[in-house]
Design goal:
alpha+beta
Length: 209
């Protein structure tokens, strides 16, 4: 990723993986016949050797998985909190007026070869991992064992597993790093006071940094 500016880039693997886990839903992009195609699906990062793999699944009826039968290049995009930034939140607007609207956002890009599998054992283990990851911490977590005998196995026959071997993991945290402390505090206060949950989530990200 040659852009954006260095101050917006996040390269720490632990931070990127934490964001992948928190966001959960990916836009998986591949190229078919010279044109990009994308599908939204939950993906989970799991260790693979000395690196990482993203795993997910799509419906058997979705033709995307056939592109990955022999391996194909793919990009998984995890879009985190994002919010419009109102210029009036900057103290600088009242001082000199040299401010403009912008958009703050957090995103993670994972690049690598994508493969598909219909192995029943792999799919069963994948569904268990994915479910356990999203149910963790709930008062009454649901598990695959809660379903009637044979129900999950029946549904499993209608899906195909996907694995993306992560070769490059990149992050962008565009959260007003190029502004002074007063402007950043003004944006945090403005976002935190918003009725929009996405605005408040961005305020939390900025405050943590």
């Amino acid at each position: 990723m040659s852009y954006p500016p260095r101050q917006f880039r996040e390269t720490r693997e632990a931070v990127l993986l934490e964001a992948v886990g928190a966001i959960g839903l990916a836009s998986l992009v591949v190229v078919r016949d010279g044109a990009p195609e994308a599908v939204s699906l939950p993906m989970l990062a799991v260790p693979q050797g000395d690196g990482w793999m993203l795993e997910g699944h799509v419906a058997l009826a979705n033709p995307l998985w056939r592109l990955a039968e022999g391996g194909c290049a793919a990009l998984a995009i995890f879009q985190g909190p994002h919010a419009y930034v109102h210029p009036g939140w900057y103290p600088a607007k009242r001082e000199h007026g040299k401010v403009v609207p912008t958009w703050n956002y957090v995103t993670v890009h994972a690049h690598g070869p994508l493969f598909s599998t219909r192995d029943p054992a792999w799919l069963a283990a994948h569904l268990a991992r994915l479910t356990d990851a999203r149910e963790a911490g709930r008062d009454d977590p649901w598990s695959l064992d809660d379903a009637p005998d044979g129900f999950i196995q029946g549904l499993q026959r209608g899906i195909v597993g996907l694995t993306l071997r992560v070769e490059r993991l990149e992050g962008i945290w565009k959260i007003a790093q190029h502004h002074d402390d007063a402007n950043r505090r003004g944006v945090i206060a403005g976002l935190a006071a918003s009725s929009d949950s996405g605005d408040r989530a961005m305020a939390e990200v900025m405050a943590e940094r």
